[in-house]
Request: fold
Amino acid sequence: MRAERIWGAIRFVITAVSMFAVWLLFTASFGTFSLVAGAIGSLLIAALTYDVFIAKHQANLRFFLPNPLHLLIYFFVMFFFIYQSSVVMLAAVITGRVNPRIVHFRTRVRSDVARMVLANSITLTPGTITLDLNDDHLTVHWLFCDTHHMKAAGETVKGRLEPYVQRIWL
Amino acid sequence: MRMIMMDVMQWYLLLCAVVCIIRLILGPTTADRLVALNILSGIVLAFLVLSGVRHGRSIYLDVALVYDIFGFLGFLAIARFLKDKMHGEGE
Amino acid sequence: MIMIREILALIAFSAAVIFGTAGLAGLFRFSDPYTRLQAGSLCGTTAVLSIFIGALLLSPTAAVSARIVIITLFFLISSPTGSHIVARFAWNIGVPHHDPKQKRTPVSRKKDTPS
Reply:
């Protein structure tokens, strides 16, 4: 019981701090009124929503606190991947040679945030769109399919991205 | 030089928006129309940013920021509403 | 310095024109909603991202460029989310996907879908 309450307090504090950071980002002012209003607002909203923002089963701080260095690296890697995949898509639009297929596979990352980021990255990289995400089961529409084997397809689609995501979140 | 470039890009984005709206009108299924709407929202966002930089006013960029963050909530509402409606008709 | 920034912005805008035209061509060239969404969303995202980079290079003040950086960060989150919502909508109402290998009409996932 006691551990549960401590965990609840930690989740509450993290929610309030992230709300306040977003408030600072949007208002971009350091006046007294702005700071006090933002603090009160973020505390109240955190009291309402901390159970939704960080679910109870996320039992580790590394599940939702990113590793900042790897997050920065991932940001630039993602930029490179987006441009590379756009060039591939450009060639596909010009030649018209596509082989669309729907593949299913599982992912190894465990936290909800990391799964969301992985799904969004899969949507951005060449010819793949995440159709559905159930726990660890991804349904992906793949434009340049070259295999029938689901596991090999999964490795091709997520293989480059998953190690980066695993380094940021657990 | 920079003003000319931004003006040309704004005209180009306007052209893109017109083409997107043609797809929006033509699109045979609802999914096609939503696809066109999705791309149109990105074009509008780029137009707002370019316009803000062109006139040097950061207030346009605030509008663009809010549009960026809350834009996809509109898609969520439209998609959920249409899904419920179609399932209601299918039964 | 200003000259270099303008040339880099010109390159970014040219990339935006190329990718944007490709995305719009993909909207009309492909035949089913999923493929159109692939071409449109990916090339559209890249075009908008290139325009953001060009605007960042041309921005007159620091306040404007800071806002552009924040907008870019949120765009990288919101754009794939939007296309995922559209794709999930199409998948849930059972839009059949085009398959060149299968000559017969592809079977949609749900049997009771309205045509």
About this structure: Residues 62-92 of chain C form the longest helix (31 residues). Chain C is about 75% helix and 0% strand. Helices of chain C lie at 2-29, 33-58, 62-92. Residues 23 and 40 of chain C are 5 Å apart (CA to CA).
